[in-house]
Design goal:
4-stranded antiparallel sheet, 18 helices, 26 strands, 9-stranded mixed sheet, about 30% helix, alpha+beta, about 525 residues, about 25% strand, Rossmann fold
């Protein structure tokens, strides 16, 4: 009865259930596409293939079916087929329960071809444990799969340190373990092997994946990339995905680059390796890449003449930011979403603008933020609790009423020892004054000059510039910027693009002549 329950719906069609180790079930069309692109279609007898994070067998089910069809076509006897399945197909999986289900599913496929009693090489391995997997290095003709997506900081300290020690692509930063699976997969391949993974496309740009990008480009390993951009591959997870096909024997100066979704994957171009930089991969047609370089080189980079910052970050905006508080002399009444009302000191409030919804310059949003900080030597510092309780008893009483909720922010790992401080210290000093505001996401450039110096801001970015803000905003709202962001920035759903500082900082500004290029420092804040 257990096996009947497992196969009442084909495994690879059950995409609504998430695996506990950071992987979602891969749709059948993705499995088929990856296998086709690595060449696991014909003449596969004697070829060894592995899914190093096989789960319940999404990839292996299709692999077994293809190999059985080939064996039957070539007239193999049952014992020969069983031997071929045993010697050719491998799966590694950390979850013992998933292995049980995987073997049941593979048995059901084999039995549908009249084959029983296969000894499957589905191994209970932590694939990133080098001691266990090293014996299979340089062993496989194909490595395929959907590696788990788990930020390394979410792992236990022992496992996290071991991964950082064993896998050179993960040595530094808050990386994701799917990056380690790229390194593992390349090690598992033999000298003519091919790898096909579906992963987040974030590795194109993140600082923590820089060593991976460098290695792939330096060794000319990329055969094909399919970037799904904002198209959602998985029904039950918001993930911006890409298929990466690597070939240990590629050694060509170009690779094929595709974009699209399930029904409309289109070849964009054969991208020349010389047109991409390992610092950040910008993937587009060669003509677009040339224009991007022209835009960047036509003037001085924005990041060299201006400072780019994020706004204040409370990690609990609904408890700090309020529209239309009722002012009563030196007091103010704030109202929470659940209807509760509290009295606080008027002096605790500062005007704030929400950049993500800003439509026109200096519009009145009537938003205020509770700002429990004071200025010392030009810097904002949190008001100590004893002083805060005495000077602002009403606001302190309000924060005390929601203390438990505030302490839940980011698992208590705030940038301040005081529990009522903002979740992050970024923007405390850099968000005030005249500035250009831009939302974090947009369909088109929307850089707005904000003249009201007493306002701070959140939910977006600001650009600080010593010159004419209106002159600068005009260049930033140009067709060149629209084109640049379209091809450089990260994609989000419904065609929205990111306007994060990492995507706008290299945009070329024409006509800035106050200083020579040599004298211009790069002003990029460390804010995130």
């Amino acid at each position: 009865m257990q096996s009947e329950k497992l196969i009442d719906l084909p495994l690879y069609m059950r995409v609504s259930r998430e695996k506990t180790n950071g992987v979602v079930y891969t749709p059948l069309w993705i499995v088929e596409l990856i296998l086709n692109k690595v060449g696991y279609e014909k003449s596969i007898i004697g070829k060894k293939i592995v899914d190093p994070a096989c789960g319940e067998g999404n990839f292996l089910i299709v692999i077994v079916k293809r190999l059985l069809q080939q064996c039957k076509k070539d007239g193999f006897l049952s014992n020969e087929i069983k031997k071929t399945l045993h010697e050719s197909i491998y799966g590694f999986e950390i979850d013992k329960d998933a292995i049980v289900r995987c073997k049941i599913n593979l048995d059901n496929i084999a039995e549908s071809f009249g084959i029983q009693g296969v000894k499957w090489n589905i191994l209970n391995y932590d694939s990133l444990d080098k001691i266990r997997t090293e014996k299979y290095f340089n062993y496989f003709d194909y490595v395929v799969g959907n590696p788990p997506y788990v930020r390394i900081q979410h792992l236990g300290e022992v496992r996290r340190r071991k991964i950082q020690r064993d896998w050179s692509f993960c040595v530094s930063g808050s990386t994701d373990i799917y990056i380690a699976f790229f390194e593992l997969g390349l090690n598992l391949l033999n000298e003519r092997g091919r790898l096909g993974y579906i992963t987040p496309n974030t590795y194109f740009r993140t600082e923590t994946a820089k060593s991976l990008r460098y290695y792939l480009v330096a060794n000319n390993l990329i055969k094909e990339i399919v970037d799904f951009k904002h198209y959602q591959v998985f029904d039950n997870a918001t993930t911006y995905s890409a298929i990466t096909i690597l070939d240990a024997n590629w050694k060509k100066v170009k690779f094929l680059y595709y974009e699209g979704g399930k029904e409309n994957i289109q070849l964009v171009d054969e991208i020349e390796y010389s047109n991409i930089n390992h610092n950040i991969w910008i993937l587009s047609s060669n003509d677009n890449l040339k224009r991007i370089k022209e835009i960047e080189n036509k003037g001085i980079a924005l990041g060299k003449i201006a400072k780019i910052h994020v706004g204040v970050t409370t990690l609990a905006d609904e408890f700090y930011i309020f529209k239309d508080p009722i002012i009563r002399g030196n007091k103010a009444v704030i109202k929470l979403k659940d209807g509760r009302e509290y009295l606080i000191e008027r002096d605790m409030l500062r005007p704030i603008v929400k950049a993500s919804v800003l439509k026109v310059a200096n519009e009145n949003q009537n938003r205020y933020i509770i700002f429990p900080y004071k200025k010392i030597s030009g810097k904002h510092v949190i008001i100590p609790e004893v002083e805060f309780k005495k000077a602002y008893p009403d606001t302190y009483a309000y924060f005390s009423a929601i203390k438990q909720r505030l302490q839940l922010r980011d698992k208590g790992e705030l940038d301040s020892k005081e529990w009522y401080a903002f979740g992050r210290s970024q923007g405390l000093d850099t968000s005030w004054g005249r500035k250009i505001l831009v939302p974090p996401l947009g369909l088109k450039p929307n850089f707005i000059v904000w003249e009201k110096e007493e306002y701070t801001f959140y939910a977006g970015y600001c650009i600080k510039f010593d010159g004419d803000l209106h002159w600068l905003a005009k260049q930033l709202n140009s067709k060149d910027m629209e084109f640049y962001i379209k091809h450089v920035a990260r994609d989000y759903q419904n065609g929205y693009k990111s306007y994060a500082k990492s995507f706008i900082t290299n945009f070329g500004i024409v006509g800035y002549k106050e200083k020579s290029n040599e004298d211009l420092p790069i002003f990029i804040s460390s804010d995130f």
